[in-house]
Each structure stands twice: as structure tokens, then as C-alpha cells.
Amino acid sequence: MQPITQDDPKQQQKEKLRERLLVACIVAWLIYNCTRPNYIGTDIRYLVFVMLIPILGGILVLGLRKSTISKIWNNPNTFSHELQGIGISLFLYLFASFFSFGLLAKIVWDTANRLIVQDKQVVVIQCPITKFGAHGKSRRTKHVNFEFNGHSEQINISSDTMLLYEDKIPTNYNILLETKEGLWNHYLVLGYSIHQK
């Protein structure tokens, strides 16, 4: 078996394809998260089944495909170099897994949640507001933070709404959320209104 050199055209094509796939996954992740509906609620099952297991599974799939770990046992003289390589590889696998397997898990969860809430009744929930804010590099994404079931939650709001409240004291207001109960103590937010206490 011949070693692959830097000038190998097949290897270069594979590398370019991997880069394009990763960029496509990152773009898809950004688009999906910008258009994703607002949810509120907290449950450990979401963290485990929608975040940790898919991302760790993705790391295993990507890592086993390359069989990086087996190189250590075949050549113990390069242990420190291989250990560094594994550390870098794990970081890259985590990065790639988050944007591919993590995105896929979110899409499946959101789709299942949308199907479940279709036949549910609208529930209006009142929560105390803790902060009006903006985030992002240009601070164009406006949001409101509030307390729900003892946890801090955040939903995006329009710039017009933010203009009405940016100089107000947040703790003087409540947010009324029109929601439908979905999976695992999560609620799909259909609409909101802000009212003075």
C-alpha cells in the first residue's frame, strides 16, 4: 500500500469535498437557526438525546472512519505526536459533528414537536421579564429574557417591539406567551405580548 502524498489528486479532491460539505453544514445550521421557531422549557432529555448523543455519535462515526486511535498501537515511538493528532482530530470531529449530526438531530426533534403540537390547545403563559437585550456582532438580533418554571428563557423579538421598551425597566413588565405544549416540557411559542405589571 502506497502512502498518500500531498500531491495526490484523489486526496486533494476528497479534502476539497470535505471542506465544501463542512461549509454547507455550517450555512445550513445558520439558516435553520435563524428560521427556527421559538421554544421555551427545560428538560435533561433534550440535552441528552438531541444534543449529547448525536454529537458524540457523530464524533465516533467520524473518528472510527479514520481509525486514528489505532495508529498509536501500531507505532508506539510516535506516541506524543499521535496523542496531539488525536486531540486535534477530536476537536475537528466535535466541530464537524455539531454542525452535521447536531443539526440533523435538531431538525428531527423540531419536526416531531411540530407534529405533536398540532392537536394541542393554545396555553397562555405569563412570565416576569428580566431583561431586554440584543446580541450578535451588529446587535441586530433583539430578544427578551424572562423566568419560566424557575429557569431563565429567551425569545427573539422584533426591532419595532424593542424600540418601545429599550429605555424601560424590564422588571416592571410581564410577557404573555401564546404556546402549545410539545415534547419533554418544551412549549412552542406562537406569539407574545408585553404588558406592564
Structure description:
With 197 residues, the protein is α+β, with helices and mostly antiparallel strands. It has 2 domains: 9-117, no CATH class; 123-196, OB fold (Dihydrolipoamide Acetyltransferase, E2P) (Beta Barrel). It is built from 5 helices and 6 strands; from the N terminus they run αβαααβββαββ. It has helices spanning 9-35, 44-66, 69-74, 79-117, 159-165, and strands at 39-40, 123-135, 141-148, 151-157, 173-181, 187-196. The chain has a 6-stranded antiparallel beta sheet. A hairpin with a 5-residue loop joins strand 5 and strand 6 (187-196). Helix 1 (9-35) packs parallel to helix 4 (79-117) and helix 2 (44-66) packs across helix 4. 16% of the residues are buried.
The number of helical elements comes to 5
Distance between the termini: 74 Å
Uncertain stretches: none
Anisotropy-based shape: elongated
Strand percent estimate: 15-25%
Largest pleated sheet: 6 strands, antiparallel
Oligomeric state of shown chains: single chain
Percent helix, as a range, is 40-55%
pLDDT averaged over residues: 82
What does the radius of gyration come to? 23 Å
The counted number of beta strands is 6
Query: Order of helices and strands, N to C?
Result: HEHHHEEEHEE
SSE class: alpha+beta
